[in-house]
């Protein structure tokens, strides 16, 4: 055998031994495909080979697939939707502006600008200046229990003392419930405040807005609600509950009442929607109540014909709507109430522990129209759910 033939045979022997150039599945050892080779993270594969990126990591799309739009094409809008912004109280006029509140500061740090309704839209704003008495803006109801008409077997004694309602140096209203069950004076064991605005809504259409931080604890029942101007017949002339929560359940109850509980027909006159707000005790939640009763009219007995539209909104989101029931008091005659109750049937017999429970009212105002205008109200009306029978 010639030298060249020996060399050729030797090469064929080496090919068979190392499977070089043989198809997969042939020979004594299977070839390793380049794409299945393992590399340490960050290690560059040999030139010309390709490595599958680990699951969940990004890879460059193939030509013809999505790519970054060129300048002038679509891009992510930089201005957030106005009605998804976090709730922030409106600014106080510069001549009496306090330091920013914790809630407002936190929201501004998140990059969302505060809501700033035009001055012409706000026709009334409660004055929380610390140099005036609370009684100048609100009637301070007083009394303890059912003889005064509070109902529900509640524990609190409502007072006009500064220990239960006050304006703070940074222009907030505090509605304070104080629980001290061991106090020797029964009238001092559970004290609180029940405030009623000295003015009514006064208009056939408008928007009532409050920014509230609500106390959350067992046996505590804060409320922001409305009743007709006194004297009135409850509940037939109506009741609207805008912010109402109890027993630290973090559920807000938006309600409309206009009947007793004595018959099946009466049960249809109590409507409610619940909204879960898990952080209601730690920030200013925005509550809006919008009414549009301009065409409903008034009956000969001075009661409403009904038919006006009502909507409850929380942090810019409509949560409940209903028509104004006939026989209720015209909406112009309604007042606003703020109070913190304790115990009673609503709290399922639970009493609060020793302590102080504050409802912080950051701002309270009435406007000619809701934020976004009446066109937005019309749009929201169609998608908002009606109140459900309790």
TrEMBL record:
Q: Where is the composition biased (Pro residues)?
A: 87-101
Pfam families given in the database record: GH16_XgeA
Question: Domain GH16 spans what residues?
Answer: 122-390
A Gene Ontology molecular function term of the record:
hydrolase activity, hydrolyzing O-glycosyl compounds
The record's region (Disordered) falls at 1-119
Coiled-coil stretches:
none
Record GO biological process: carbohydrate metabolic process
Highest taxon of source: Eukaryota
Q: Which PANTHER family match?
A: GH16 DOMAIN-CONTAINING PROTEIN, GLYCOSYL HYDROLASE-RELATED
Know the name of this protein?
Uu.00g110880.m01.CDS01
What is the scientific name of the source organism?
Answer: Anthostomella pinea
Q: What lineage does UniProt assign to this protein's organism?
A: Eukaryota, Fungi, Dikarya, Ascomycota, Pezizomycotina
